[in-house]
Design a protein that fits this description.
Chitinase A, domain 3, single chain, alpha/beta, five-stranded mixed sheet, Helix Hairpins, two-stranded parallel sheet
Length: 159
């Protein structure tokens, strides 16, 4: 990952900090203990427990480094302080699908916070990029995997 600043909500940063704390205070010590126990079993060249613990240690350390880097490069944005009549990072946007007449709702969040099933999309997604800067009543056109989509912005809120 580059050292470029990445937008992240306050909640997203808290979630990463919680995961980092768990990795450092629970996972890492458990892995160290597993490695020590496996070493006590003798020959490491044919010790599956040792190999598994070392592999787990590699994944754990990589994730710790990844989280530390993301937190260091985070541009944390408190969305409760945002006020805008336009779609910006952190906005919760209600869209009207002009083809199906269904309403959909999305919040624009940081890359690590996105979860499409819960309506949280990455600021770098094609839909979020198409929404940024739009006002209530504006039309949004973008290419989805299913083809061209057209929406109308019905509501913009910050909670």
């Amino acid at each position: 990952m580059t050292s470029e600043r990445q937008p992240m909500t306050t909640q997203g940063k808290l979630k990463l900090e919680k995961e980092l704390h768990h990795l450092l205070s629970v996972e890492r010590p458990a892995i160290i203990k597993a490695i020590e126990e496996a070493r006590a079993n003798g020959d490491l060249s044919e010790n599956a427990d040792y190999d598994a613990a070392k592999e787990r240690q590699g994944f754990c350390e990589a994730r710790i480094n990844d989280i530390q880097s993301k937190i260091a490069n985070a541009e944390v944005i408190d969305i409760t302080r945002l006020k805008s009549d336009r779609v910006v990072f952190g906005a919760k946007v209600v869209l009207l699908d002009l083809e199906s007449d269904d309403e959909v709702s999305y919040q624009i969040v940081g890359e690590d916070e996105s979860d499409v099933l819960s309506g949280r999309i990455s600021v770098f997604s094609p839909l979020a990029r198409a929404m940024i800067g739009k006002k209530k009543g504006d039309l949004i056109e973008f290419k989805s995997p299913k083809g061209e989509k057209e929406y109308e912005v019905k509501q913009i809120s910050f909670e």
